[in-house]
Specification:
This protein is α+β, with helices and mostly antiparallel strands. The protein contains 13 helices and five strands. The protein has a five-stranded antiparallel sheet with strand order 2-1-5-4-3, with helices on both faces. α2 (26-39) crosses α4 (52-73), α6 packs antiparallel against α8 (160-168) and α10 (227-256) crosses α12 (278-286).
Length: 324
């Protein structure tokens, strides 16, 4: 059992080491931690002498283990790639000290495509990287190695358009992490921090990389014998879903006279409330089988509950200019 009085970095390293040495899937080990934690929660509450900060760290460890389990649970036979990767970027923003996140996947020829983003600002930045073929995520996928930038103001020569655009919307630092298994890199995860946040620390980067690894393994293990064909089909399906999702966001934004981030948040809430996928709900909205008003009203009804479940590590999701 991993003790909860260690640092986040130590806990993550022990989790991965235990999983490897015992031949246990990391999601099963994480589930066991959560189960034991719940079993003894009442006893720990009575005997705990830890400080408020220590209690917050303990809660964060449990949330982290739960997110690993949730990521693994997404990997069923008919899982939706867009849902999986949207859950990954959402988990990074919820649990780590980052402002926003985005993710791109590569097809067998190495062409990158946007698949998930936590806000409209990051969606546009990721698309800019694809169009200009420059930026931290492009470089990360090309080399298969992490790319860390602590101050984008120093990178205006390296990535002129990307750096200028990122600075313009309030981002100061960025960390790009490869979605890689051994020698195969299938995409990249971008983590952005705004002016008021320090660059991502090493322990936080390791946690983000571990979550990206879980998603990568899940995607790769679903491949058929004809791997290249399957990857192409999988990516095309993800891109098709993403196009429909953007159309649905536009319908919601127009109907409710709200911005795209608010529309996407409402879409996520509706999917979570009704236990369905982003792709399925988006398609129903675009086909007019589902009323945009119903989706938006569901978000309004659950907003107070969501406010009550804020994570202990952070209080906002977004940059200084009002993004999520």
């Amino acid at each position: 059992m991993i003790q909860l009085d260690t640092t986040i970095d130590e806990a993550l390293l022990r989790l991965r080491a235990l999983a490897y040495s015992g031949g246990i899937p990391i999601n099963d080990l994480a589930a066991d931690i959560v189960s034991r934690r719940r079993r003894h929660s009442k006893e720990e509450e009575m005997t705990s002498v830890s400080s408020g900060a220590g209690q917050a760290d303990t809660q964060r460890y449990v949330l982290l283990a739960q997110r690993f389990v949730a990521l693994a649970d997404t990997l069923v036979d008919d899982y939706d790639v867009v849902d999986l990767l949207d859950h990954l970027v959402g988990s990074c923003v919820d649990l780590l000290d980052v402002s926003q996140a985005g993710l791109m996947l590569a097809d067998p020829l190495g062409t990158l495509s946007l698949v998930a983003s936590s806000s409209e600002a990051t969606r546009l930045l990721e698309l800019l990287q694809v169009q200009t073929e420059q930026g931290p995520c492009v470089e990360c996928v090309r080399t298969g190695s992490p790319v860390s930038v602590t101050d984008l103001r120093a990178e205006t020569q390296r990535w002129p358009q990307f750096a200028a655009s990122a600075l313009q919307v309030g981002f100061r630092s960025v960390q790009a992490l490869p979605m890689r298994l051994r020698d195969e890199t299938i995409g990249g995860l971008n983590l952005f921090n705004a002016d008021d946040r320090p660059p991502l620390s090493l322990p936080e980067r390791k946690i983000a990389q571990a979550m990206a690894d879980v998603a990568t393994i899940g995607i790769l293990q679903q491949r058929s014998v004809d791997r290249s064909s399957h990857v192409a089909e999988q990516l095309q399906a993800a891109l098709t879903t993403r196009i429909v999702l953007e159309q649905a966001k536009g319908v919601l934004a127009e109907h409710g006279q709200v911005d795209m981030d608010t529309a996407f948040a409402a879409l996520r809430v509706f999917c979570r409330t009704n236990r369905t996928t982003l792709g399925a709900v988006s398609a129903r909205i675009v086909r007019r089988d589902l009323s945009p008003g119903e989706v938006l009203s569901t978000s309004l009804r659950t907003s107070e509950q969501d406010t009550g479940n804020d994570n202990p590590h952070r209080t906002t999701r977004g940059t200084d200019n009002g993004q999520r």
